[in-house]
């Protein structure tokens, strides 16, 4: 399968066969991610982390993935300390960093910025989240988590929270459609899944249901994928205040759940999962954050052509 020098911009660029190949590669690398085995796959390689938006998991798990594979990291650091503050545009920044590093991981607030960066880069670009549309490496790790903790084929999944602005759910529902998932979207009316995504899924004969009640669906799903309400993407702060606490997973809610239910969350969480859920067998979100390491190792190694 040809991955060398390939950009990772959107899940729509990957077939099911290619996604399975990335997940299989991640599984092989999991002992290295856990520090149980050593690897020098990225010996001599430099991965640049260009983050124009805050991040904990994506940035640090890419850094850990690179280091565990024997590579080195070139970090832009705070945007305020870079020449972006002098007015340098993204295209020039990408052209220059392409001369310093073997691969660039980019996070940027503007929709489409990763695709644009790929046009100016002479090394692979991995999209670490751009605007409210794409976050493909999160989707790869979500799929990996679901495969490890439950199953992908024909999964019954509910995605809940901010389905309007949450880029992780936009990428995830496209990818899960390749596996014939049944999807329920749970949100306040103001934060519904964009209807063009719902229509796309229906065209693919995916069963889609929409509701505003977690109580209504909690007994019927195998995976509940919670998301935070994305305060930073609301044009009007008052609108955020109105919806921020509408959906919450609590120990009480879970009394109605299947014992095998797995709860995932891309994190960070705010109030949408109460701390008493963390100690239950349903909570898999911290393990999910770990799975970002083997998954990103696989993407780095494949894109740089050091593994086939
Ligand atoms: N899930 C995720 O993208 O987290 P960060 O914003 O901390 O990278």
Describe what this molecule looks like in 3D.
By secondary structure, this protein is of the alpha/beta class. The chain is built from eleven helices and nine strands. A five-stranded parallel beta sheet has the order 7-6-5-8-9. A four-stranded parallel beta sheet has the order 2-1-3-4, with helices on both faces. The longest helix is centred in the last third of the chain and has 19 residues, at 285-303. The radius of gyration is 19 Å and the shape is globular. The termini are close together. The protein binds phosphoric acid mono(formamide)ester.
Keywords for this entry:
308 residues, alpha/beta, five-stranded parallel beta sheet, four-stranded parallel beta sheet, 9 strands, binds phosphoric acid mono(formamide)ester
């Amino acid at each position: 399968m040809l991955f060398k020098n390939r950009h990772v911009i959107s899940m729509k660029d990957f077939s099911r066969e290619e996604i399975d190949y990335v997940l299989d590669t991640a599984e092989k690398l999991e002992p290295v991610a856990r520090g149980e085995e050593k690897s020098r796959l990225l010996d001599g390689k430099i991965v640049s982390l260009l983050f124009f938006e805050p991040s904990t998991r994506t940035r640090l798990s890419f850094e850990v993935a690179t280091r565990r594979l024997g590579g080195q990291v070139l970090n832009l650091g705070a945007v305020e300390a870079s020449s972006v503050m002098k007015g340098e545009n993204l295209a020039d920044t990408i052209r220059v960093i392409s001369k310093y590093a073997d691969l660039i991981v980019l996070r940027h607030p503007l929709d489409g910025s990763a695709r644009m960066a790929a046009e100016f880069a002479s090394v692979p670009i991995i999209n670490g989240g751009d605007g409210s549309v794409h976050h493909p490496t999160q989707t790869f790790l979500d799929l990996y988590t679901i495969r490890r903790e439950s199953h992908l084929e024909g999964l019954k999944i509910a995605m809940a929270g901010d389905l309007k602005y949450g880029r992780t759910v936009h990428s995830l529902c496209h990818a899960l459609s390749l596996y014939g998932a049944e999807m329920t979207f749970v949100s306040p009316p103001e934060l519904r899944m964009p209807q063009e995504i719902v229509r796309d899924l229906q065209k693919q004969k995916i069963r889609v249901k929409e509701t505003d009640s977690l109580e209504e669906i909690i007994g019927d799903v195998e995976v509940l994928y919670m998301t935070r309400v994305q305060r930073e993407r609301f044009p009007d702060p008052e609108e955020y205040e109105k919806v921020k606490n509408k959906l919450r997973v609590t120990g009480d809610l879970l009394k109605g759940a299947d014992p095998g239910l797995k709860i995932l969350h891309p994190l960070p969480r705010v109030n949408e999962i109460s701390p008493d859920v963390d100690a239950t067998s349903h909570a898999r979100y911290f393990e999910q954050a770990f799975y970002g390491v083997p998954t990103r190792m696989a993407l780095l190694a494949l894109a740089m052509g050091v593994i086939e």
